[in-house]
## 1
Amino acid sequence: MLHLAQIQKKGYLGKAGLRLLAAQKSEHIWTKLPEEETVLSTEASGFSDGLLVLVDISNSNQILDIREAKDWVLELVQRYLTYGVTPSHLQQEIERAEQWRQSLTLESQELARRQIELEARREQIQVLEEELKSEKKQLETRMAELRSQSQD
């Protein structure tokens, strides 16, 4: 798992410490670690004290890769901060998206309600059509009876 860490040179038997600050959960999601955890590493001793690094750590806490975080941080600045993407801007966008989602949900519910009403009206019209056909047949039958009686 990829971590953002800070180099700590305290000289633990020739090993430097990596103070883990954040962990990557998915490609664009990181979580700040609630408790500082330090991992000892001989690989970290080649870096300056206080330097931010990206560290790939296996499940068994072995360092798989370690590199300076400068390019990664600059990419974040370029990708997000040069366009005015601030935490408040992101919060506003989240709120707008939520309002939009709620609006779409209400519209969908309204359309579903209208569809149910239309189906009910269609059924009423079909019932009325059947009643009219029945009444028409009865009237035609009655007219035929009256004609036959008047001819007699």
Note: The longest strand covers residues 29-41.
## 2
Amino acid sequence: LPQLLNVVRGEMSLVGPRPEVRKYVDMYTVEQRKVLAVAPGITDYASIEYADENTILGQARDPDRAYVEQIMPDKIRYNMKYIDNRCLKEYFKIIFLTLMKIVK
């Protein structure tokens, strides 16, 4: 709910890359930093694909390493997919997929 207030204030969008923890942003390459050029969002492809991220990290022997080596690169790839194909159709597609994920 607080993030919806951020959307209303124009600080966030409904769809866009989820904000990342600073220590991981500091690890981004120049190419990966492109995700910082768009407004952060409440949902995106990475949020849909990694809805079970806490379970994955909970089962990992080294959660930080699993995040940095496995999850973070995937999330950035999903973020770039949205950024490179950003249009109204993609926006509503992500909202629809998010709602479907919530229902399931």
Note: The chain has a mean pLDDT of 93.
